[in-house]
Fold:
Amino acid sequence: MRGSLGPRLLLRRLREVMAEPIGAQARLDKIVVQIAFNMVAEVCSVYVLHADKRLELYATEGLNREAVHLTTMRLGEGIVGLIAAKAEALALPDAQSHPAYSYKPETGEEIYQSFLGVPILRGGNTLGVLVVQNRARRIYSEEEIEVLQTTAMLLAEMIAGGELVSLFPAGSEVLRQSLSLKGEIIADGVGLGHVVLHEPRVIVDKLVAENIDGEIVRLDEAIAALRESVDRLVDRGEEAGPGEHREILQTFRMIAHDRGWLRRLREAVSTGLTAEAAVERVQSDTRAKLMRQTDPYMRGRLHDLDELANRLLHQLTGQDLVASNENLPENAVLVARSMGAAALLDYDQRKLRGLVLEDGGAMSHVAVVARALGIPAVGDVTNISSLVEPGDAIIVDGVMGSVEVRPGPDVEAAYAEKARLRARRQEQYRSLRDIPAVTRDGVVIDLHMNAGLLLDLPHVVETGAVSIGLFRTELLFMVADHFPRPSEQYALYKSVMDMVSDRPVTFRTLDIGGDKVLPYMMRLDEENPALGWRALRIGLDRPALLRSQLRAMLRAGAGREVRIMFPMVAEAAEFDRARAAVDHELAFLTQHHHPLPTEIKLGAMVEVPSLLWQLDEIAERADFLSVGSNDLMQYLFAADRDNKRVSTRFDPLSAPMLRALKSIADVGQRRNIPITLCGEMGGSPLAAMALIGLGYRGLSMSPSSIGPVKAMILALDVEAMTRFLGDLLRDASGEPSLRGRLEAFAAEHQVPC
Structure:
């Protein structure tokens, strides 16, 4: 080596080669010559990893040139294959004594003893291997290894940036591999489009530094600013008290202040890279190591390191952390680690074709909004934001919970046809809009619609829903940056009623707490938030909050029927207190001469199991009941619906759940009180079929579910279903699910489910 001038001189010469007006193969051939000269090596070779896990010799200085594009090996085969598989550098003074040693006779490499190979990495993914060799036995220094790794990083950026793209056969380049990923279904539908990162990565286009000392100063200043922002983040988290969230933030801060991380960044800059390229280089190396770890804790740090590297790059470049709405393509598929409901609403909905999240399930707030917007969405897709590049072709399958990244022509054509079929099916469902939901044997089923935003409301007419069976008032609070004033609440509720003037609206009072946290309210640290201070419990403990909402609803409903529903009622006495709050507000409005609603109906949500043993008492007090199947399911089986380990452990179409639901329907029939189910079950044709068999005559669901459920109803014989389900529940002997038997019934009776 030539001391400290070695890496800088090499990078300068490579930059000159990059600027020459020559073809891709000639450029790569010149690059290996320059590397060999600078490294005082007799051989320099570049191997590229193809999508089929095959390494191919693409260029060489020193080996037989005729072997280029002819010599191949499998991933893991030989020393080169081992480096590609492990994504780790390997320096050997006597390569032929290594257990993995093998050689290809056509290359003539058997005469070389010493060997240094490094993986060509980008985003933690191996693109190939860069190798230098010498005839004599030689111990390569740490500096030489560092130089070759930096050079490999430059090669990776050249491949990604397109300077060498013409060398690669279509579909073979590792960066363009097709990926088929699985996740959790968030919102139904199929969307084809191109990737837009919600928190876009910085594209590093300047790799070679002009002034090393200046780059180190820039790096240090950006690190200081990053640490300050992380400290502020931790301080805000500590306001909520101790808990797991605080431990996560403290870990985040610990990594940001890690001296080893800063040392590696500075060392990368000292080799001649810009500060941005150094961050890319260090993070790519770290990512490659962590991706191959089996320890869950170590793999869990990958997310933190990616987040910090992304923040540092934005700090260095001054770019915004969130994607610009102005530059949104016509067929955008948003990809994000996580996203709030308000952030999704900020995008131009006409251009959105799908949403993919690393963190976020079907019960998350953003999922509710995605369903309201009719955007196909899949959540819990591991590492998706690091596996895609902006502009990549992507398909979101919200029916199967899968995501296709950079799909091949056959896959894309198949999904395009699937999307067309779904569009035709939706058109068929729309043709059912004005047909009453009446079963084959004459039973009328009322289909209601769930909503929470004004943009939901046009779907009432489009789908033919008989009413808004559930209006989630908390969404207004969640997307606001301050607590909505009574006047703002009044305006919203009145707008809702005006937009669906010929249909009733059932307003659910504020259902916050647990997983639903308002951004401007301090979050309480509770050991088990789902069983904690939430929904009506907050309203009864903070009566001013509940009464302000009730007053706005009652004022908005002047001259009309007003339907108000209280969530999370655990005992009949709580409903009595909520009714007393309504009476208090009616007295206030009367005293101040405000016009009143023509009729007021008050209901309770049945979602806490304790109410199953007070059904007669609550039926005496309430005007209607609505079953929240999501929470009832989680409480009945003690299975947190946001916990991936247990959320799918139990099936809602199991005997215990169906028996609990039947007990509610039986009380409704006996007491002659309307009962509607407004949870996710009602929107599934198969589950809706079972619910009708249990005695439910009102179901509330998302707009996209009304058509499929109505089609099922029109083909259903309720008497046969009721008889079949009664026998099934009597005979069920500990089966974990009755889904298979219900599917068999539907198939036998030609009921579309």
